[in-house]
Specification:
The protein has about 260 residues and is α/β, with parallel strands linked by helices. It has helices at about 20-25, 40-50, 75-80, 105-120, 135-145, 155-165, 185-190, 220-230, 235-250, and strands at about 1-5, 30-35, 55-60, 85-95, 125-130, 150, 170, 195. Helix 4 runs parallel beside helix 5, helix 6 (about 155-165) crosses helix 7 (about 185-190) and helix 8 (about 220-230) packs across helix 9 (about 235-250). The longest helix is centred in the middle third of the chain and has 18 residues, at about 105-120.
Amino acid sequence: MLIDTHAHLFHKDYEGWLDEVLQRAEEAGVAAVICVGLDLPTSEQAIAIAETYPNIWATVGWHPHDAKDAPPDVLKRLETLAAHKKVVAIGEMGLDYVRNISPPEVQCSLFQGQLELARSLELPVVVHNRQADVDTLAIVETVGHLAGVLHCFASPPAIARLAISLGLYISFTGTVTFGKNHNEAVLRAVGLDRVMVETDSPYLAPVPHRGKTNEPAFVRHVAEKIAMICGTTLEEVARITTANARRLFDGLNGSQD
C-alpha cells in the first residue's frame, strides 16, 4: 500500500467527482491521502474533506505565495484548526523565491512563526522550498527540534543531506518521472530511509499522465520510477515510504491498510 503525502483535494478540478477520484486511489493501492491546506479557507476545507472520508487526513497552514495577505491572527487561528483530530501537520508553509509573490522578509517571518507553532504543538511541518535552500534550512535550524518534510523535493543532493541531518524527510512528486532534474541523483545519494511519495495533486501529473489533472492514484507511478532508480521493487518502495509517512505523521496510524 502507498500513502500520498501531499494533495490538494479541495481544488476546483475535483468538484463533483472527488468520490470517483478517491475510489481510483483505493483501487491503485493508496491507503491514505494527506490533504494539505494553503491558507485558512483551504485548511478548513481540508479538514472538512478529512471528516468526510476515513482515509483522508489534513494539514493546516499558510503558503508563502500569499504570506503578504495573512491576517495578524493567522497563527492563533491555525492553532485552533490544528486541534482537530484529523490534522496531522502544520503546512504548507515555507519560502518561494521563484515568483516572489510576497516579499522574502514577509515569507521568512510567517515561515518561522508557523515552524514555532508546530514545535509548540509537537506537530510535524510540511515545507515548500523553491530556490530558497539556504534560507529555508537556516530558519528550520534556527527554530530547531522539528520534524517535517521538504515536499516536492527539487534541490541537489547536498541540500538533501543537510535537510536529513536536520531531521527532515524529503518527498518526491511526478517530477521524478520527467528527467533532467536532481531527483535521480538525490535518490542515488541518500537512498530511501528518509523518502516519501506524493502527487501534489492536481499539479505535476507523472508520466504517462503528464499534462493531465493529477490525482492520488497516480502516486503509484512516482513509486515505480523511484523503484527503478534505486534498483528495487515497487513493493519495497511502498513498504519503506509508507512506514516513513506513518513515522512522521503519527495521526496516520489510525488509517486502514
